[in-house]
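batch job 7 of whatever, protein = Enoyl reductase (ER) domain-containing protein
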Amino acid sequence: MTPSTTKQWTVTGKNGFDSLKFDEKAEIPQLGDHDVLVNFHYASLNYRDLIIPKGKYGFPVVLPVVPASDGAGTVIAIGPRVTRFHRGDRVLTLFNQSHLGGPITKVDTGTGVGGAVNGTLRQYGAFEESGLVKMPSTLDFKQASTLPCAALTAWNGLYGVEGKVLRPGDTVLTQGTGGVSVFALQFAKAAGARVISTTSSDAKAEVLKDLGADHVINYKSDLNWGETAKKLSPNGIGCSHILEVGGPKTMAQSLKAVRPEGLISIIGFIGGMSKDQPSFLECLNNICTVRGVLVGSRQQFEQMNEAIDTNGIKPVVDEKVFGLEEVKEAFKYMWDQKHFGKLTVKISEPGQSKL
């Protein structure tokens, strides 16, 4: 028998983490013809999940909403016209539910899981079959739960622009040790690229080197890290790909690091907002392309998963794992930047759904 209720978290307002409310028995709607019911085993958190209850997210949010975009689970029921999945399949959520392929549209930006569409911090969730993908076969549920947002964003940043896709021998600059940056490092090394990473501590620098970073710069002791990164590139030409996660406060350094005709992909603003930031003319002065990235399409997701399986890439997951009832603590842990790599929430053991 398919479950009729689920434990879940809901964002009910914009008053910070106090806006997170836990429900022991939320109703599960009846499945539509093309719906798939997923028993979630793990979810993972992103910076975006933390700022939604703070009212600081720039894309559509429809409250109340179940938070978190990233989830991995097992299909336990399907609608009568579902063709892509069967019971028992291991699946992941697609961040923007309608972004199946090609350039993202305005409509797609209004289908974000955990923002405009109910997310993954719940035992059971129903999704249209088009909004799910199969898990990589080489990963477990905890590892795979980290892929829908951060990994796909990194993949899009490196492969999302025709004519500027990552090539062997290119130089990639990553910032910090958050999920997107670590995935970008792993994808770039798998592709035969050179990687320069920045971080704020010697301990994290050693981990980045273990993951394959060719050079690591401490941005606290080297305030001109953009120029340093350019000098470290072959012949001092600069970086072909830069994953810009800091936002206005780091953009000036990224522009100093980029090579002519290089690509800067802006994916976040964890460094905070600032009025003191480069003008658009700096793109001309540095002869580079700057683009915004909002995760990626289902087609890109499936291509990325193939690459993960082929190259044996394993997501870097923080050793701390929270339970479903500890979501507020997990949000605070991540907000205080105590994590390294991806932070996960364990929801249920595989095979424990009440059928």
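notes: Residues 298-311 form the longest helix (14 residues).
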